[in-house]
Amino acid sequence: MKPLEDWLTRGKISEEHGKYLKKERLYSFLVGVSQLVILILFIGFWEIASTYKWIDPLLFSSPSRIWETFITMLLAGELHQHIIATVWETIVGFLLGTILGTVIAIVIWWSKFLSRVLDPYLVVLNGMPKVALGPLFIVAFGGGFMATIAMAIAISIVITTIVVYGSFKEVDPNYIKLVQTFGAKKQQIFSKIVLPVSFPTIISTLKVNVGLAWVGVIVGEFLVSKLGLGYLIIYGFQVFNLTLVFVSLFIIAVCATIMYHLVQYVEKLLLKNRN
Amino acid sequence: MQSDHLISFEHVTKTFITWDGETHAVENVSFSVNEGEFVTLLGPSGCGKSTLLSILAGLIKPTNGEVHIRNEKVTGTSKHIGYMLQQDYLLGWRTIKENIFLGLEIQGLETEQNQKKALKLLAEMGLLSYKDHYPSQLSGGMRQRVALVRTLATNPDILLLDEPFSALDYQTKLKLEDLVIDTLRRKKKTAVLVTHDISEAIAMSDRIIILSPNPGRIKTVIEIPDVIRTPLPFASREVPEFQSYFQMVWKELNYS
Ligand SMILES: Nc1ncnc2c1ncn2[C@@H]1O[C@H](COP(=O)(O)OP(=O)(O)OP(=O)(O)O)[C@@H](O)[C@H]1O
Ligand SMILES: [Mg+2]
After folding, report:
1. In what order do the strands lie in the sheet with B64-69?
2. Confidence class of residue B168 from pLDDT cuts 50, 70 and 90?
3. Hey, where are the domains in chain A?
4. Where in the numbering of this chain does the ABC transporter domain appear (chain B) (predicted)?
5. Residues within 8 A of B (CB atoms), A 183-222 only
6. Is the domain B1-80+196-256 a CATH 3.40.50.150 member?
7. Interface of chain B toward chain A, CB-CB under 8 angstroms
8. Fewer Cβ within 10 Å of end Cβ, chain A: N or C?
9. Which site among B60, B75, B84, B89 would you substitute to test the A interface, given the most A Cβ atoms closer than 10 Å to its Cβ?
10. Is residue B41 within 8 Å of residue B200, measured between CB atoms?
11. Over residues B11-18, mean pLDDT
């Protein structure tokens, strides 16, 4: 038991600290185990329910069949293009949505007049369910990549503008006064104070926008695409291959999680020296 | 109008106009400050002290009247002036060193020589070893000393101090008063301080201008005698005359 005890209390600076570390580590371990148990129970129950036909296997498939199909398709090279298309669209969509939204926020911060003029339009656009604009995007950009990207951008740009502009406006006026006393011009007020103060907010919209971009891209692919995970879902549904639908959902879950964590990691890097 | 004064306020009036109406912040205020003098504006909250400093700094324009620095009318911000705010307002994402270079950066004076001077000032405040720390790692008193260095780094002749000690605890405040006075005297700076702390005003100033509110007007001007103003602020408080001046200022502030 000694090595285990040592491992659990590694890095201790006193007996009490060791006890504390051990308690916290055991607790984290328990949490992890519980999470794993839930997952195993869920998959196991699904598999059993499907095998014994408690649920209709044609509709709800089963984990083993989903996995089988996934591996088969992956090895046959039938998934790459879809995964790449969707991931690529999502990345482009959320980056452009964030950047364009921030740029618009900068423009309306610069011109008080413009911000007053645009205010009601932003309110209406923000309240609008953006996916309802889908048909317009198809008409404007044709079916395919551009329309899907447009959807992803549309879904994140307005909220980004509103959130970022909001943080520009909330900058403590005393910081602005401070640089003004040094004779700062508007451009310096922006670059020395307003932008750095709002930087964490801008970064935090990245995280929100990843999620939004996924919604935009999948819906976009539902509507227009011949490619992508969203297309695969619709296709699977149309040919009544629900296993294919689940395979797509599984891939989306994995990709979205990976991307979210990447963004979170980048956020941490960028905000390292902040408090 | 030529004069020998460094700063002169001539019949300055400021009325703020907003949707809700008008606020007469200050009315017909005239006074002057000589080179090297330390003058305090003392008065209750809302009597227009900060407004007067902002006008002097060129941040807002008076509704009527003029302010002159070295016989030149103030029309905007000027490199002659350094402004210290009530709180330190250090930028949390910059190191201490980067914070004290802020003014130099904005004024395009980021030469190696100026940066060296700023670091020397930081050393004078005993904070050189903190130059690569972030503001959150410093105590309130240390942060306000950094703010002082930041203000002095652009080498202004005139320092405007808007209640710079009010956010600090009493001991830190007393120490900082001495440090500020000592620094300003050695560097022969002129200063205008705003405060509502009577003993701070007496201990630090050469002259106190007492303002009355609604609208802000000059009520009286009190010259501080040499016995009180020569020692550093902490020692000034020990001078026997200090108490009688305290009573005098107190009465001026509280009876109309
Ligand atoms: N930008 C502004 N717009 C409208 N009214 C203002 C503005 N700035 C100051 N005032 C008003 O002018 C009056 C004087 O304000 P000022 O800040 O100069 O007072 P103060 O003496 O510095 O007070 P305190 O001791 O509380 O700092 C107040 O009634 C205030 O509400
Ligand atoms: Mg004030």
Report:
1. B21-33, B7-18, B64-69, B72-73
2. confident
3. 2-55, 65-274
4. 7-238
5. 183-184, 188, 192-193, 196, 199
6. no
7. 57, 59, 76-79, 81-83, 85-87, 89, 91-93, 102-103, 105-107, 134, 136, 154
8. N
9. B89
10. no
11. 93
Residue A31's contacts (CB-CB under 8 Å, 6 or more residues apart) are none
Pairing of strands B64-69, B72-73: antiparallel
Dihedral pair phi/psi, residue A96, rounded to 5°: -65, -40
* CATH class of domain segment(s) A65-274: mainly alpha
* Mean pLDDT, residues A147-173: 93
B18 CA closest ligand 1 atom index:
4
Q: What region does B11 belong to: left with phi over 0, alpha with psi -120 to 50, or beta?
A: left
**pLDDT higher at A99 or A224:** A99
Cα separation of B166 and B164, whole Å?
A: 6
Measuring from each residue's beta carbon to the nearest atom of ligand 1, which residues come in under 6 Å? B 16, 18, 23, 25, 45-51, 196
- Residue A205 · residue A165 · CB < 8 Å: no
The CA–CA distances, whole Å, from A232 to A60, A133, A221, A227 equal 16, 22, 9, 7
Q: Are B225 and B58 in contact (CB under 8 A)?
A: no
Token pair belonging to A30 = 């328990």
In chain B, domain spans: 1-80+196-256
Phi, psi of B53 (to 5 degrees): -65, -40
Within 8 A by CB and 6+ apart from B118, the residues are: B100, B101, B104, B149, B153
Neighbours of A85 (CB within 10 A): 22
Q: Which residue is associated with the tokens 């452009």?
A: A96
Q: Which of A177, A180, A182 should be substituted to probe chain B, the one whose Cβ sees the most B Cβ atoms within 10 Å? A: A182
Q: Which residue of B has its CA nearest to A185?
A: B106
Nearest CA to ligand 1 atom 13: B25
CA atoms within 13 A on the CB side of B33: 28
Query: Under DSSP, is residue B133 helix (H, G, I), strand (E, B) or coil?
Result: coil
In angstroms, the CA A132 to CA B68 distance is 62
pLDDT at A273: 67
Mean pLDDT of B146-161: 93
Q: Return the structure tokens found at A78.
A: 């039938």
